[in-house]
Amino acid sequence: MRNLTQLLFALFCLCLPAMLHAQDKDDSKYLAGAVPEVDGKVVFTKEFSIPGMSQDEIYNRIYGWMEARLKQNENISRIVFSDKEKGQIVGTGDEWIVFSSTALSLDRTKILYQLTATCQPEKCTLEVEKIRFNYREGKEKYTAEEWITDKYALNKAQTKLVRGLAKWRRKTVDFVDELALGATEALSAATANAPAEEKKEEKTVEKSVINSGPIVIAPKKQVTIESAQSQPAANNNVISGTESNTGAGMPNAQVIVPSVQVKKPAALVPANKAQQQAYKEVAPDQLSADAIQTGAGRLVIVIGEDPFNMTMMTANSGGSLGKVNGKPVIFSILSPDQPYEQIEKAENYIIRFYPTGQTEPTVILECKKLPSPATMEGMPRTYVGEILKAMVK
């Protein structure tokens, strides 16, 4: 009997870390209202406001994004209907959602959906509906209405996800978030409108991108992309490090890292007094809408405070400024082939924006990493950083 008690105690100790980890998981963005319903049907809706942009321009950008996005699946996903005069585009998606993948097992489901965009002067509405799941190679088939709604996927108090359906609801919300972020980038997002303020609570309730209110977009200016020139040597107080920049059509470039002994992150401080005077600090929510433009330069992510031991990488797929849940943020997008382990581990990092042909950044942002939607295999990875401090030149 004593041996049995010892065995049970040992098993409990082994399982305790996993139990505590499960309890610590924050599912706030997947709880009540995360899967919206219209007349009993699951319909995710995202509204975009783009002041000054014509219906034709909005239509062309969204059409191009939808066509490219659906073609990436290399299957029957495609645009099935379009009417430029009415501003309507309808596509059907058929792709995989991966729950878990190891060397020994692969747990995934097919997700089938309808993607509809309605374009009007200065605004656009994106809808994801008619969601179905084909699981275990089609042996099990479910609809969103019977599988991931509040009624079935939440407990009676709506405070927790039902264990068997949790992975379906999380992955579906993350999947739709990824679509919304893709549309935002296609429309050249620069600033976003904060949703209505709510009473502050001790714990902030996280919301998904699709459920965080309308996004107001400032269109980016047209820019000419030029090849980066070889960078000249800087002063003697520098360390040179190589950064990959294949995503922007430019060769690898040398990035100059200031060698300054300071308590604050070295990456945020210019190298000398003359450079420091050239920068000024601005409130994060007062950054110019076109301060950072995809295609007009390099977005460099700097991780670590020690100038002699820091990780630097270029966001090959670019990025843009915006707001999420009222917080000024910057979206940094890594191409599918880029290593991402370091930024996954980081809690804080620095963003530098180098305009094309320039060796010094014009924008330096101190960021705190926010939760980002899960990324489908083979798709670009989007990281969201809350801007804590901003310096511009």
Automatic annotation (TrEMBL):
<protein>
    <recommendedName>
        <fullName>DUF4468 domain-containing protein</fullName>
    </recommendedName>
</protein>
<keyword id="KW-0732">Signal</keyword>
<feature type="signal peptide">
    <location>
        <begin position="1"/>
        <end position="22"/>
    </location>
</feature>
<feature type="domain" description="DUF4468">
    <location>
        <begin position="44"/>
        <end position="133"/>
    </location>
</feature>
<dbReference type="Pfam" id="PF14730">
    <property type="entry name" value="DUF4468"/>
</dbReference>
<dbReference type="InterPro" id="IPR027823">
    <property type="entry name" value="DUF4468"/>
</dbReference>
